[in-house]
Amino acid sequence: MDSAGHTFSNYRVDTEDNNKLPRKICNIVKFCLFLSVWLYSSAYLITTTPKVPSTFLVPVLPYRKYVIRSRDKTHQSDIDINFSGPLNKRLITNPEQATDLDPHIKVKIKSFNAMANETELESDTLFLFLLADQDAMSYKISKQFTLKTKKKQSEGIHQSTSHGEYYELNIILTNYHNRAFALFVVVNYNPVSTHVGVAGGILLLIFFYVLIIWDLADRALVALLTSMGGIGLLCMMNARPQLTEFVQLIHLDCLMYVFFLMLIVRIVDETVVFDFIAAITYEASRGKPWLLVLILCACAAIFSAILDNVTMVLLMGPITLRLCQKLALCTTIVLMSITMFANIGNVLSPLNKDSILKLDIAPFLEAQHITYSNYVLHIFPGVILSLAVAYGVLYGFLKKYLYSRSTVIGSITSLQIRADKLKKVGVHLSQYQNNRITQLRRIEIEQNGEREEVDFTSTLSDLKANCIVRNIPLLVGSCISLAVLFVLCLPTIDNNLHHLTPNWIALFATVLLLILGNLQELDVLLARIDWRSLIFFAALMVLFKSIRYLGIDYWTIKTIHKIVSNTRKDRQLAVSILVLTAVAAIESAIMPNMMMKTLMVNEAISMSVDCNLPFAPLLWSIAYGSSFGENSNLICSLANVLASGLAHQEGYRYTYKRFFVIGFPITVATLMMSTIYLLIAHLVCNWHGPSA
């Protein structure tokens, strides 16, 4: 990173005269590589039909047996089955807790040879435990069965299951309960091979990150291309998802929330709200730059704990840009700082709690006396300690780089090059982009030469001078809509309006603002929406989900269980805390997804029961790791992606490498601090007793 007055080589963009031949060769190689991935993915997408699993609605009668017969050919020994019904997930996950009196059904798979009139292959027996109140709720359980030879003289598994028209697969369900009920069963006779899937997923991830880290192409294009590659890999393994699954992969509810929030921020940006907050913030800092950074970071962490990190980054981004431009601070460093602190505070967010305190494990959480209040009580000390350590690391590493003229010059260069490219293809610049280039040139002139000490009084007067109300109806509408957004998202209100999701709340606030602001034309407003980030994140979710379909999640869970099980009894709790925190952080840093967090929580329940460990510290470890790990990767948090998109729109180079250089030390420091806190709290102080 360049300090004040240094050259701005980080922002220099190669022209046609600079390294012309190597650039041409690189472009040709990149073109051929991208085209190969597209051809490979398109070929499999065209030639492969969507995989339609076999579905059955099974009427299970009291003390009766039901057999699902199929002659579908299998190409391996594994069969995946999803069960939906009044299932007790806690007892199914931990059968050691069950008794003979608990209602259950037995499930077994047999491969029957009709010619020889005998069973040659069979699976282990699975016990599906049922809820006492079978009308209360329906849960979904996914299990993988492995067929094993019953006789030594039998042929190999693949020959027995794949060839011959005399083989029949029988799925036998035996009800040991005095009530009848229905069970919805989905059978996948040829699931993805874990070994091949994990290898393919890792190669796809490496390809993706090489393109992202070295900035070899636009991020949105890279995400679209690699997501196609992931789907092509699934098609190659005969596991092409259906169209409805594609749509579910995109997380439309999350994207709609961000879209509506962007509209609100763009409208509010035309008022004096952000200018007023910027003036108040600067006045509170008394003109001291690092105190200003501390105030911004603290506000980001506090309000992320109340709402969420995405909302805070979108709302605080314009404020940060105003202050950094006025005070000649390095915009990218300050913007990255508030994003990272927002990620740390997000672990306490009530809008984020459902990813940890999930509804389907509510009975187990209740038995462990774990509520959201207890969750906050135990997580809060670690968050405070981590915030203090993070600010210390931030100050120690970046105190020489807070002032940087080169970011302004680089911003002008970046915007001008983008403008030249658009003009070549006949696209006219928007008025906002023209104004932005003019504004930055004026700032460059003001900052020309050696940096002078900023006068607090005159700077504060300039900031307050911008707080002149020009559109009163728009200002009133902005304040009212922001108030509606905050109030409906507050935890105390959320309990009463639990049926309202954040995207609905953002929709209400957006439409209200459009009405109160009396906005007639939306073309200019929509032109300033960060479509690039929305497309990038949507493609990213498809990519990560397709990779997880290949079996990486289950392989990771098995590895965790093996490590903890092979540890000495007196060290299992410490090892569990260390392993779960580290794995959750690595997972969230490489490819975060809600599904993996769910699997890790279920694995924590299994470890708690199998190894007789307290469940609370295991849950806290997952919460810390999954939130703090997001600070080491620019693309693995929606808040990070949106901050990068905001900087890109303003012309700043918000690169993966720079984010990693700042974020990785903060991630390591906060993870170490939270782990030390957990070890002291639960090994030394034993703070996981009944009161927890």
Automatic annotation (TrEMBL):
Subcellular location per the Swiss-Prot or TrEMBL entry: Membrane
Transmembrane segments: 28-47, 196-214, 249-268, 290-315, 327-348, 375-398, 472-493, 499-519, 531-552, 572-590, 659-680
Keywords tagged on the record: Membrane, Transmembrane, Transmembrane helix, Transport
Residues of the Citrate transporter-like domain: 209-625
Presence of the UniProt keyword Transport in the record: yes
Principal place of residence: membrane
Entry's Gene Ontology cellular component terms: membrane
Membrane topology designation: Multi-pass membrane protein
Pfam entry (one): CitMHS
Gene Ontology BP terms: transmembrane transport
Protein name: Citrate transporter-like domain-containing protein
Naturally occurring in which organism (per UniProt): Drosophila mojavensis (Fruit fly)
Gene label: Dmoj\GI18175
